Model the fold of this input.
Amino acid sequence: MGVSAKKSAIWLLMLVLAFSVVMAGCSKSSSPDESASPSTGTEGDSGSDKPEPLTISIFYNVPGPIPTDDNRIYKKIKDELNVTLKEEYLVGDLEQKLGVMIAGGDYPDMISANTKLKDGGAVIPLEDLIEQHAPNLKKHYSKVWNQLKDPDDGHIYWLPNYGVYQGEFKPTQHQGPAFFIQRAVLKEFGYPTIKTLDEYFKLIEDYKAKYPEIDGQPTIGFTVLGYDWRDWSLRGVPQFLSGHPNDGAVQVDEETNTAIIYEGTDIAKPYYKKLNEMNAKGLIDKEGFAQNYDQYLAKIASGRVLGMFDQRWNFQQGEDSLISQGKPERAYVGIPITYDPSIRDHFLDRPPVNLGNGFGITVNAKDPVKIIKFLDTLMDPYWQKIFGWGEEGIDYHVDENGRFYRTPEQRAEQQDVTWRQRNKAESLYGQLPKLEGLYPDGNADTPGNQPEEFFADLKPIDQEILNAYGFKTWTDFFSDPPENRVSYPAWNIDLIEGSPAKVADQKVKDLSFKYLPKAILSKPEDFEKVWAEYAAEIAKVDTKPWLDRVNEQLKWRAENWGSSN
Done:
């Protein structure tokens, strides 16, 4: 790996670290460091070359992707660390599943974060475990340590999976919110510039008229997902149209650091009125308001949906399927649309620490120390590069300058969903703490963030699109994000299950789920009447406890997080 001088330095570092680990008392689930031989393993308490067996049960709050039984990464974890992961993925409704778990007290060892679990006493504090047994995790979170603490009791319950960067933040792909449109639509009309809702929907309307069917199925102009906690496609759009960043169900004034509720207000009305007009033209997917997440992904994967508002990571599985089917022209480009071109878009942000997400350890875990040591082991660059890049010589190579690169064949493998299920650990990696940004050697955390790899991996139509707009990456469509305010974002503020704040939040959500589809699907002449009824019902909700809780936490963050951002 790299030149000989670099090798010598790394091996010297390895010996020093190995000596330190031995002196400190090596854990059963320690890993080799970045340059140690994968076959070396680690010494368990018994003195053998392999740690004692450990089985960790996990529940994911998402349905997949699910690895195959012969998955290469899981086999590597078993062979080198002697850890077996017994995983369960979400099937059906998350709230119902969690309710059953909490009622029965039946939890796995590790679980994806959810405020109900913390409020229900399902998970244990982690700060002492990290301090005593997880030096890699402590180093990783050191700059944001205060942010991890629960504002109500000061404990750390979750290990955030995203938002802790090292080196510069230079994304090539925008995984967050945007108005998405099929690449085929942009190509059909000569790659036009899109700034407004009118321009966006005009392209969709014209393309649908020209191609009423795609692959033998009726073309869908614009679909919406309003299901379970994945409700931003329906509820969260107005904040972006008005030039604000992603604060969830509230909109925060950047100068005063105070929140307001925008649902049912004049901030939101123009968007839903536009959807109502588009529905009258047959562009809105009427089934969208009743579809679940799996149905939504299947619809995306069919290639007949021309546009939607969403966050890319949320529909990524459907888009991956399109690529695997050899239909890259049916994949999507994210566009930052605002109510007026004079409004600066704020769709792209500097990723905040993903608080309230990632893994927690439950009260049913028999050996939390071994689990936290295992998680600490996976933070080692050796394992992080396996999760992000794969195995050297199999999934990528290293050139004479130490730069990671892949062959065309290796890039093609990554496009195959079935191959990834056998050779990657995407769901596990998605929930784990992770190194993001740049490694000290200058390589990016994943191939997709390595500039030369990113461009080389693009399909011809992607390169054609970027060249047509004069861009190099997909984030070039968006305005550069300013520094996040200290209290950002508001969407991850815990409203506390059962509290008046949470009750108010749920009431507003229920009203939006009831009235927004009704307003969108109503006859244009009935829209004002439906909207007035919706706004009146929102006004009846006592939202003061909700806003008080949010504003109290925004203020607390500004006072306590300033030095940790």
Notes: Confidence is low (pLDDT under 50) at residues 1-48. The domain at 54-168+353-455 is CATH 3.40.190.10 (D-Maltodextrin-Binding Protein; domain 2).
